[in-house]
């Protein structure tokens, strides 16, 4: 298999073209990898049981020591992915980074309040709360469309 990469600032967007005689397993693997932008499901572990989690039912992900947990209405589940991998896999219009250790489902947020040190405290529908670090405050405000300017 021959691989060619052409890098130029003249390109407006990245495109991938595959030239092949036929679509065999290796080509299909490449196509599957390229098309896999959003996860259809995530496998979470609770003890010896593995659960299939739909992204829509996950309230948030957070790090806990050396592992990443997915929090749902049914409990917390250990997932194998790192937060940065989840950030790439999950729908970007639904999930947003709150801090170095938390990614939240925007549709599971109930309310938030400003904290004294410039952070936000976010409350989930489940009653749980997490803090948005100052670095990510503008990101969440943009995601929630709070950065709109008032018209005079």
Structure explained in plain terms:
With 152 residues, the chain is α+β, with helices and mostly antiparallel strands. It has a domain of 102 residues: LytTr DNA-binding domain (OB fold (Dihydrolipoamide Acetyltransferase, E2P)). Helix content is 18%, strand content 34%. The protein is built from three helices and ten strands. The relative contact order is 0.11.
Q: Based on helices, strands and strand pairing, what is the structural class?
A: alpha+beta
CA radius of gyration is 19 Å
What is the CATH homologous superfamily assignment of the domain at 42-143?
LytTr DNA-binding domain
- Reading off the top of the CATH hierarchy, the class of the domain at 42-143 is best stated as Mainly Beta
Biggest sheet record = 7 strands, antiparallel
CATH topology group of the domain at 42-143 = OB fold (Dihydrolipoamide Acetyltransferase, E2P)
* Unreliable stretches: none
- Major beta sheet, strand line-up: 2-1-5-4-3-7-6
Summarize this structure as a short list of keywords or feature phrases.
OB fold (Dihydrolipoamide Acetyltransferase, E2P); 152 residues; 18% helix; single chain; three-stranded antiparallel beta sheet; seven-stranded antiparallel beta sheet; globular; alpha+beta
Structural topology:
Blueprint: H1 25-35, E1 42-46, E2 49-53, E3 58-64, E4 67-72, E5 75-79, H2 83-89, E6 95-99, E7 102-105, E8 109-114, E9 120-124, E10 129-132, H3 134-143
Antiparallel strand pairs: 1-2, 1-5, 3-4, 3-7, 4-5, 6-7, 8-9, 9-10
What can be said about this structure in brief?
The protein is α+β, with helices and mostly antiparallel strands. The chain is built from 3 helices and 10 strands, in the order H-E-E-E-E-E-H-E-E-E-E-E-H.
């Amino acid at each position: 298999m021959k691989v060619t990469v052409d890098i130029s600032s003249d390109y407006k967007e990245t495109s991938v073209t595959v030239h092949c005689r036929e679509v065999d397993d290796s080509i299909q693997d490449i196509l599957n990898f390229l098309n896999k932008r959003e996860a259809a499901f995530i496998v979470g572990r609770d003890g010896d049981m593995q659960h299939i989690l739909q992204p829509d039912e996950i309230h948030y992900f957070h790090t806990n020591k050396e592992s990443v947990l997915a929090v749902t209405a049914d409990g917390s589940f250990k997932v194998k992915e790192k937060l940065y991998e989840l950030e790439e896999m999950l729908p970007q219009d639904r999930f947003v980074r709150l801090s170095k250790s938390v990614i939240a489902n925007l549709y599971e947020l109930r309310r938030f309040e400003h904290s004294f040190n410039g952070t936000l405290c976010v409350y989930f529908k489940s009653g749980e709360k997490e803090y948005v670090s100052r670095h990510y405050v503008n990101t969440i405000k943009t995601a929630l469309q709070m950065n709109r300017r008032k018209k005079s």
